[in-house]
Design goal:
The protein is mainly β and 126 residues long. Helix content is 0%, strand content 48%. A hairpin with a 4-residue loop joins strand 7 and strand 8.
Length: 126
């Protein structure tokens, strides 16, 4: 059974950058598509972006396009989320999730994912 753990969250000023990492344990997730989601207090969980198995394609939510980049290192079994030009509205708990069943697809909805991490807090101050 694969487990996912996010790391790299923290407090940053507006305009700054953070890099989140999602690591797998128990089983490799190199054969899965991986999505990043976020949830701010009082709001629904929102699709941030994703990357397919093999890393050949990525997709992003409209609110982060041009600022966030997802990459994966299958040798290290990690998927990273590079966040640049952060805004206060990016403040949320960020989650990574793995989709093994349809690993050639980037699914923007939560039901498409089999395994979730516990989340890491990102706070952007103005």
């Amino acid at each position: 059974q694969v487990q996912l753990v996010e790391s790299g969250g923290g407090l940053v000023q507006a305009g700054g950058s953070l890099r989140l990492s999602c690591a797998a344990s128990g089983r490799t997730f190199s054969g899965a598509a991986v999505g990043w989601f976020r949830q701010a207090p009082g709001k629904e969980r929102e699709f941030v972006g994703g990357i397919i198995r093999g890393g050949g394609r990525t997709d992003y939510g409209d609110s982060v396009k041009g600022r966030f980049t997802i990459s994966r290192d299958n040798a290290k079994d990690t998927v990273d989320l590079q966040m640049n030009n952060l805004k206060p509205e990016d403040t949320a708990v960020y989650y990574c999730a793995a989709n093994f069943a349809r690993s050639w697809m980037i699914l923007p909805a939560m039901p498409g994912y089999d395994v979730w991490g516990q989340g890491t807090q990102v706070t952007v101050s103005s």
